[in-house]
Amino acid sequence: MSDLTVVVEPGRQDIVITRSFDAPRDVVFRAMTEPEHLARWWGLDETDTVVDRAEVRPGGIWRFVERSADGGEYAFHGVFHDVVAPEHIVQTFEFEGMPGHVAMDTHTLEEADGGTLYRAISVFQTVEDRDGMVRSGMEEGLAQSLDALERLARSLA
């Protein structure tokens, strides 16, 4: 059972996410950053993710495309601002279906009792942008992705 928490405080521009993983921090970091692993956990259960680009380094760009069974495509992209293995990743996040609504995401990984504590803070340009992300159903997709990341990290450990 996941201990995922998603904190969305009224009137703020951020979303704070925490979750623990039953895998070592370096393994979780590898699963989150190595291109051969990304498509195995990123995205919804009912879509296939194609990693178009994943230059996981400061200044590198990323772009992922989710493809649904009915042929729909949903693309996301951003830029990595800071990457320090296995501690943290700072990157932008933008859904190509709504260009101009960019979030800055900071992902941190801490060692915790033989596992990993994951914390992410997404800061949006406006409260309205943040609220739109929440209304989009992001929490369900996030839960699916992080559950898949857990399974992948355990298999790599």
Automatic annotation (TrEMBL):
Gene3D superfamilies assigned: 3.30.530.20
SUPFAM superfamilies hit by this protein: Bet v1-like
CDD domains linked: SRPBCC_CalC_Aha1-like_9
Pfam family, one: AHSA1
Domain Activator of Hsp90 ATPase homologue 1/2-like C-terminal: 22-152
Family, as annotated: Belongs to the AHA1 family.
Annotated protein name in UniProt: SRPBCC family protein
The species this protein was found in: Nocardiopsis codii
